[in-house]
Amino acid sequence: MQHAVGAPLPPNGPGAAVWAHQAQHPGPPPQPPHAPQPVPPVQPGQGWTGPAPVSRDTTGHVPLPPGGPVPIPTPMAPAPQAETGTGTATLAVLLIGPAGAGKTTVARHWASRRRVSTAHISLDDVREWVCSGFADPQSGWNDHSEAQYRLARRTCGFAARNFLANGISCILDDAVFPDRPVVGLGGWKRHVGPGLLPVVLLPGLEIVLERNAERSGNRRLSDEEVASIHGRMAGWYGSGLPIIDNSKYDVETTARVLDDVLARSIASPPAW
Fold first, then answer.
1. Among residues of the chain, what percentage have pLDDT more than 90?
2. Per-residue pLDDT tens digits for 53-92
3. Do residues 49 and 42 lie in contact, with contact meaning Cβ atoms separated by under 8 Å?
4. Residues facing residue 118 across a β-bridge
5. Which of 193, 208, 243, 261 is deepest in the core (most CB within 10 A)?
6. What is the spatial distance between Cα 269 and Cα 193, in angstroms, rounded to a whole number?
7. d(CA 126, CA 156)
């Protein structure tokens, strides 16, 4: 017997006879012997007489609150004497710094050590989701690579807003330049919201050169480019944003300092 393309295959085992009957005699299949009788519905006031009703939604779908712009965080209540830093506050953080500053490492460490759910969103990771057609800025900065950077930032913003709407803090990292406010901080404020807390991670030039030399692949830049980026990042001094010089800090110490800086930013958000 032939079947239409895409039709389900006939079953094997006890259900095969029922399937064959349906193929030859349309209509309800014959009831097998000793078929269980349907359980009558429970009337109001009656006790428990059967199994719980099965929900019609069996897909496992969990409705999530929509992500909206993150508002300015409200000042935290005074923490207990034994507790310092951000504690259990839900917040969105933007960690800024040049290549080799340790942004990704510090951001991931800070997120993993918090006592509340916290996500780390790396711009470079999201940007490299593009496989075929990836526009590598090392091959030349052009409109294509610029568009992919902007798309990655917007995608990170969507993710951050969705995490925050569902009670999960997040920290993003990006090399934002102070001399490009429209696509820098201004862009992040549009993508995430005014409640985003920016912090600059800016070690000395010799440190970023040393760390950059340990990189591989398209994330390793030339010494000239690293020096140029670091010089432009110096423009953050005097901007009013908190700056952490982690030249002499290990990852653990830097993450702890970051947490203290963020606690002060929640109490008094920087103007940006």
1. 40
2. 444 555 555 566 777 776 766 655 555 444 578 999 999 9
3. yes
4. 169
5. 208
6. 13
7. 7
31-51 tens-digit pLDDT = 555 555 554 544 444 433 344
3-state SS assignment for residue 103: helix
Q: Give the C-alpha separation, 187 to 180, whole Å.
A: 10
Res. 7: pLDDT tops 80: no
Cα end-to-end distance, the chain, whole Å = 73
- Cα distances (angstroms) measured from residue 108 to each of 6, 52, 86, 112, 263: 47, 44, 16, 6, 18
Residue 128, token pair as written in the block: 């490299």
Extract the tokens encoding 167: 């009670």
Domains of the chain in sequence order: 92-267 (3.40.50.300)
Q: How many Cα neighbours within 13 Å face the side chain of 2? A: 2
Q: Which residue has the tokens 């994330």?
A: 219
Contacts of 112 (CB under 8 A, 6+ apart): 118, 120
Dist CA 49 CA 113 (whole Å): 50
Task: Report the C-alpha gap between 40 and 37 in whole angstroms.
Answer: 9
